[in-house]
């Protein structure tokens, strides 16, 4: 049985948190030193930034502005954001609020207070689990050309989802990015909304010459709230299957 199946929701959160003011500051300072790129997400908008510095005496994290003045202004108006990145291939994210402007080394930049914790999801924790077949999750999205995509899921992880197609999904191609996709987790009041990239399309013979096509999607920088919802759902599936077993 996977270790996460044995954890409560509080333990799941604790398991993935980097905490402590000094450790958080040192971790972010390392990302800034290595010029790690992060996505800045607020509302339905996003831009890519680079962490510039940790101002330890002021308890601030400094990062680059976007290249669009109007986008920068909307971030200031929003007042809060989520920063997500993959230093060394490991998914990390944290929240920042309030967002302020300052000048760093003579150039305009943004700053947020150092977060209380950083969520760090190791590769080994991003395991994939089969989803229920009787009442499958329904994934809905559109291709860049506007073609509709609606397929059932057969497995899921924090970083992606696997879909099943009974006929060749000719509207999809590996590498294609699907924006504003959605699916509903059981007992959730709101859809999970993500962007995703098609990783692979694999044909498989399942029985008596019947073929299926499996579509692997990778979520693109999902916000912390989405990852937390997915982690809880996966842990619940694991617990339920352990109890049935």
Roughly what fraction of the amino acids lie in strands? 35-45%
CATH superfamily of the largest domain: Electron Transport, Fmn-binding Protein, Chain A
> How would the global form be characterised?
elongated
Structural class: alpha+beta
Note down, in words, how this protein is organized.
This protein is an alpha+beta fold and 245 residues long. The protein folds into two domains: 122 residues, Pnp Oxidase, Chain A (Roll); 119 residues, Thrombin, subunit H (Beta Barrel). The protein has four helices and 16 strands. Strands 1-9-6-5-2-3-4-8-7 form a nine-stranded antiparallel sheet. A six-stranded antiparallel beta barrel has the order 11-12-13-16-15-14. The radius of gyration is 20 Å and the shape is elongated.
Question: What distinguishing features does this structure have?
Answer:
245 residues, Pnp Oxidase, Chain A, 2 domains, 4 helices, elongated
């Amino acid at each position: 049985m996977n270790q996460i199946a044995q954890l409560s929701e509080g333990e799941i959160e604790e398991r993935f948190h980097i905490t402590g003011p000094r450790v958080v500051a040192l971790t972010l300072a390392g990302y800034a030193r290595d010029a790690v790129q992060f996505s800045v997400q607020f509302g339905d908008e996003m831009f890519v930034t680079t962490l510039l510095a940790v101002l330890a005496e002021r308890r601030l994290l400094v990062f680059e502005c976007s290249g669009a003045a109007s986008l920068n202004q909307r971030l200031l108006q929003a007042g809060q954001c989520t920063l997500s990145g993959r230093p060394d291939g490991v998914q990390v994210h944290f929240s920042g609020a309030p967002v302020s402007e300052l000048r760093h080394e003579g150039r305009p930049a943004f700053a947020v207070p150092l977060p209380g914790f950083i969520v760090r999801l190791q590769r080994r924790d991003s395991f994939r689990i089969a989803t229920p077949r009787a009442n499958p999750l329904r994934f809905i999205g559109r291709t860049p050309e506007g073609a509709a995509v609606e397929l059932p899921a057969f497995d899921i992880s924090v970083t992606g989802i696997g879909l099943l197609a009974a006929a060749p999904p000719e509207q999809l191609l590996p590498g294609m990015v699907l924006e504003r996709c959605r699916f509903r987790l059981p007992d959730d009041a709101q859809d999970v909304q993500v962007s995703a990239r098609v990783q692979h399309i694999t044909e498989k013979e399942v029985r008596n010459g019947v073929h299926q096509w499996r579509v692997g999607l990778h979520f693109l920088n999902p916000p912390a709230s989405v990852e937390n919802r997915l982690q809880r759902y996966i842990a619940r599936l694991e617990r339920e299957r352990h109890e049935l077993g």
